[in-house]
Amino acid sequence: MPIYRAHVLVCNGTGCASNHAGAVTGKIKSELERQHLADEVLIVPTGCHGMCEMGPVVVVYPEGTFYCRVTEEDVPKLVEEHLLKGRPLESLMYKGKETVAVPHYRDIPFYGKQNRIALQNCGYINPENIEEYISRDGYVGLARALGGMTPQQVIDEVKKSGLRGRGGGGFPTGTKWSFCASSPGPEKYVICNADEGDPGAFMDRSILEGDPHAVIEGMTIGAYAMGANEGYVYCRAEYPLAIIRLRQAIEKAEEYGLLGENIFNSGFGFNLHIKEGAGAFVCGEETALMASIEGQRGMPRPRPPFPAVSGLWAKPSNINNVETWANVPQILSRGGDWYAAMGTEKSRGTKVFALTGKVRHTGLVEVPMGIRLREIIYDIGGGILNDKEFKAVQIGGPSGGCLTQEHLDTPITYESLPPLGAIMGSGGLVVMDEENCMVDIARFFLEFTQRESCGKCTPCREGTKQMLLLLEKICSGKGEMKDIDLLEELGNMVKNMSLCGLGQTAPNPVLTTLRYFRHEYEAHIREQRCPAGACQALLSFTIKQDACKKCGLCAKNCPVHCIPGSRTEGYVIDAEKCIKCGTCFTKCPFNAVLKG
Amino acid sequence: MNLSAEEMRKKVLEILAPWRDRRGGLIPVLQALQGLMGYVAEPAVRIVSEELKIPMSEIYGVATFYAQFHLTPRGRHVIRVCRGTACHVRGSLKILDAVKEQTGCAENATTEDLQFSLEPVACLGACGLAPVMLVDDQTFGRLTPDGVSAILAQFV
User: Fold this and answer.
1) ipTM of the complex model
2) Which of A146, A197, A340, B91 lies 20 to 30 A from A280 at CA?
3) Is the predicted pLDDT of residue A1 greater than 80, yes or no?
4) What is the CATH number of domain A438-526?
């Protein structure tokens, strides 16, 4: 095996790839050749580092120097300075608020509070190279399980770890496995739910793209524990790269005898298949997902019977999501006690959150359970974008709720969120500032859930539709006070009476915004005003005459010519004709157009 | 893709072959058909129905349930504007409007010259780059309404 004096890790996740990481990789390769360094320096295409905002990310080892927003033009200098002359290039390093370059990966505040378990290999290894996974103790957990543990001992180890379903439900994983294991019959299935449909969550995509073997190993361990010999990964079609990486990884694992017949000569065999989703959010619900694998419309069915008794093709089945499976190999290799030592008493271990929205550093963060929102948003995320005022954070996607300033110091666990009206969900955290209207956000989520409702049960199909109509009415300034009560009543009805998780959680964004931001709803109704200035129908634009320099840019750019006036007399917006597009507001160089 | 009836039949039978004695083939078959022709064309579906013994009504039910399947031809370039939460709070509605204005294409429709199809999608999972759109399989992030025309110009 050739030895290299330096490794250049280039992120090839979807985020960085769309920022031309491919071209950067090509340029590094040609520059290394030009400088005669190709034999000394190895380029490693990796999965996601989580800090997508700063992509493309390039990390140079052994120093661990973190370079961000690297362009093709930067490469010659980077190669010459760092790799030829050994002088790390300060101009490309991460700079925090203080604009001081931070040379090392581990010193960047974004990574400081993180504890990467499920993401341990993401951004660190080449996901297309199985040996890199093995060198990071990959397949050790599987070897332990098959090399002397009984299926029951494996389940006990997972129970001991306290791992709970990371897809949102939070059901104890070991217990779920034991249900499936105790169901009789030779034909059973293990399934990986990779239908990550929550807008604003992308941890599963990153794990599949950056560390596919962790999922394969986790599923193989689970299959052994439950006595299944067939497995499916149900992945959404919107993640083409994840599917490619997973397919390659399965082939490699089979080639190495880590998947297929008689693994590790234990007599245990496991075959894994990929099923591509076809674009339906409801397929993230386990019974709907199984219907979709069977080739039917993805509609949920009532439980019981639970999948552990009668699941895929009416056989005992177990579904866990990507992040849950990715935690399993390390629980087996490092022990359940090790995992249980992290987090809180009832919520053990770590959780990956997708931090997005109006925060300075967006990306994936993995933190111990029980961490406070404030630490995630301010210490890791670097605070609110453009130093605006924090208003709310939507946790758990369209099934979750909005939390406010007063919840910033609440520890995040499976237990702490439901009393506040939110859920952990898949771990989406969308941060909102003073310019985001909470009524509009509620309307946005309802629009989504209403569209994705499969239509099988009436409360969800009709209820979400009526709720959406009420929210649209309020956003357009035609709301009445009684609509608020109606919304609340409908929301509770849909929540209590829907068949599956989609409907049961769909009202959460509405009910939480009603609970914490009722004054915004009232402002829309009573004053015909959107306090955040987001609801277009309620906006009005005026020109502040003493700030106006009479340049005429607003009038020139107005698409409906509703700003009469002249360079000498000044300009006035004709509110009757105005279509509230906001062009004048963005074009005015003197901030003389007021929005409100 | 324009195929003669005979060629199409041959291709469809090839796609069906692995699923004749296996369960759960309908969705992968429809995906492969769409990959072949760009949309799920009725003549091809009739062959599937006859060969796999699945009623047309059931296939229609499945094909219309999933957002991925299209029963009419689509544009040469498919624009998917992300309408996920992270993109929404960073102004994706304005991006969508800009795309509509530039292409003259309505949501979930195709331009008459078959150049563009426009589909708002729930989430592309590239939230770190919000707002985001996908043209064919190329991702464009950190978009501004003004920047849209330069991107679309590459696809005309």
Assistant:
1) 0.86
2) B91
3) no
4) 1.20.1440.230
